[in-house]
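Q: Could you fold this chain for me?
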Amino acid sequence: MKVKTISRLESDYVATRSGDLNRMPRNADPALHPFERAREYTRALNATKLDKVFAKPFVRSLSGHSDGIYTMARSRTAVCDFVSGAGDGEIRYWDLSTGICKWAIPAHQGMVKGTGFAAGGDVIVSAGSDSTIKLWEAESSCNFAMGEVPEPLHTYVSKSPVLDMDCHWSEPMFATGGTSIDVWHHERSKPLQTMQWGLDTNGSIKFHPIEKHLLASTCDDRAIVLHDTRAGTPVRKVVLNMRSNCLSWNPMEAMNIVAANEDHNLYTFDIRKMDSAMNVHKDFVAAVMAVDFAPTGREFVAGSYDRTIRIFKYNAGHSREVYFNRRMQRIFSVQFSGDAKWVNTLWVDW
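A: Sure. Below is the predicted structure, expressed as C-alpha cells.
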C-alpha cells in the first residue's frame, strides 16, 4: 500500500508579522484567465492617463502678496512682464523669467478689481473697488528698497465701483465695467462714452484685438453684449441660461468669441450670428471662472471652480489637457503667456 502525503510550510502562506498580508495562491493557467490581456491593457491605459493627469507641470509660484489675489494681466509687448492685484489694494509688477517682484505699490483703498498694460506696454492701469482708476509707470525710477512709493501718473474717479477693466490694444484708452460701461482716454478726466443696456451690472469686459471699435461685456442678467465705441451704443445682445463669468476673443478669427459660463461649459459664438453657439466645450464639473486664448488662436485655456485647468482646441468639444494641483484652490483667472508656451493661473491662496 502506498500513502501519498501533501506537506507545505506554514510560513509560505501565513504572514509572519501582524501587519503583513497573507499570501494567496494563484493558478497561472491561461485557460482560467481568458480576459487577462484585456485587463492588462485596461490597467496600462488607466496608468498612462493618470500619469498624464498628475504629471505636475508646475514651474514656479510668485509669492509675496499678503492677501488673496483677484486679478492679473500680462504685457502685450513683452513676454516676461506681468502684473497682479490683491484684495488689500496692492499691485505687484513681476518678471516672469526670474520670478522676481520688481516693485509693489499700495495702489487702492479697497480690492483691486482690474489690472492691465496700456498699448505701449510702459504704463500699468489698475482699477479698484474704491471707484478709482490709476496709471502707473512700469519702469519707475523710485528706489523701492528705501521705501519710496511712486505717485500715479493719473487718477480717474468713476461714478460707481469698478468690477472689471480692460485696456485697448492700440490706443491710449481703457474701459471699465460696473453699473455701466465707461470708455476712458488717458488724457481725459471723464469718460468719453458711457454705454448701458438695461439696469444690470457688467462683469467681464474685453476689447477686440483686431476690430478696435468693438467691445464685449457680460451682464448679471445672463447676457453677453457687444458695444460699438464709434456710436457709443450697444449693438447686439444674447441671453444664455446661466451667467457668463469671462470672455475671450480669438486673435486669429476676428468673428469668434468664447464665453466661460456658470453651467460648467464654455460656448463659442460667431458674432455675425449669435442665435446659437458654434461649439460647446465640456469637461468641467463646476462653474468656469476664466478663459483666455493663446496668441496662436488655435487653442485656449480655461480655469474652473473645480480646481482644474483645461486646454481646449478652438474647435474641439472636449479638452486635450487637464492640470490639477493639490495646493491650487478656486481658480479665478488664467492666461496664456505671450509666446503660448506657459499658462499663468491665479487663485485666492496667496
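A (continued): The radius of gyration is 27 Å.
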